Amino acid sequence: MAEELAQEVFLRVYKAAPRYRPEAKFSTWLFRIATNVCLNEMRKYRYRVVTENMDMPFQTDSGSVKPEMADPDIPHPQERMEKKDEDRILKRALKSLPKKQRTALLLKVYNDFSYQEIGQQMKHSESAVKSLIHRARQTLMKIIENTDRSI
User: pTM of this prediction?
Assistant: First the structure.
């Protein structure tokens, strides 16, 4: 293959000789032609990676077998249901919090605001914000614990 490509390079150099400009460096011109020939060869179909669909059945001595490989990026249906239940419980618990506690907690957890920024938004001191968030977390834990026991 290397010999064939070298021969192709020299053939192209010979054909392109009238277009060579002497002010350009010959080795650069030659390497560019060689690079292009090699890149064209690599683009050919025979060098492409052949992939097989792992979901398709494959043949064995005992017949056709469908592979059963789980995709690690897709959660198991049971996990998805549990996550959905947890999200529902958390959403209900958040709604039951007093408005100030809920606002402070959401600004901290979901918006990643500092205590000082939350205090400015809510017109409270930094220590009052810390207290609101602490109480909100305690209340959420109690609500979630009670929900887990009732299920």
Answer: 0.48
